[in-house]
Design goal:
With 148 residues, the protein is an alpha/beta fold. The protein has 5 helices and 5 strands, in the order βααβαβαββα. It has one domain: Rossmann fold (3-Layer(aba) Sandwich). It is 36% helix and 18% strand. Strands 2-1-3-4-5 form a 5-stranded parallel sheet, with helices on both faces.
């Protein structure tokens, strides 16, 4: 089995596909998980997929990923713009984190333009909707493959 990748989803992403489809699309988080599971098969990735509405749970998951996962793909939701604690958690582990957003945060309200996660992420994908998830898996796999 290839790399171990953890995909983490933050607050309100459990509501995907049920509200604001004009912003976030009609795809549910369960649909995205299925998309990622199918992608994992094709690129030989061992995938763990989770969602939490709780900042501390997300921080605990980052700590737990240290030494057990090869990479994290993180859509931190609105914590992206508020959470020094999540930034510090990522900064405290060596596991690489790729920042992901469904929407193009730079096209939206000014308060979404700043990301604490970007300070500590290896890179960021945004604006491609659900398709960003398998893109992020390719990007993380490529990043991990380039590491010595
Ligand atoms: O574009 C993204 O992926 C975001 O991380 C989504 C967050 C938002 O706060 C970030 O600025 C950008 C919000 C997720 C909320 O998801 C909802 C889904 C359905 C209905 C309402 C909210």
């Amino acid at each position: 089995m290839g790399h171990k990748i953890l995909i983490m989803n933050g607050p309100n992403l459990n509501l995907l596909g049920t509200r604001q489809p004009e912003v976030y699309g009609a795809t549910t988080l369960a649909d995205i998980e299925a998309l990622c599971a199918a992608k994992a098969e094709t690129i030989d990735v061992s995938l763990t997929f989770m969602q939490s509405n709780h900042e501390g749970e997300l921080i605990d998951a980052i700590h737990a990923a240290s030494g057990t996962q090869d990479g994290i793909i993180l859509n931190a939701g609105a914590y992206t713009h508020t959470s020094v604690a999540l930034m510090d958690a990522i900064g405290s582990v060596t596991v690489p984190v790729l920042e992901l957003h469904l929407s193009n945060i730079h096209q939206r309200e000014v308060f979404r333009h700043h990301s604490y996660i970007s300070k500590v992420a290896i890179g960021m994908i945004c604006g491609f909707g659900a398709a960003g998830y398998p893109l992020a898996m390719d990007a993380m796999t490529s990043y991990l493959g380039a590491q010595t």
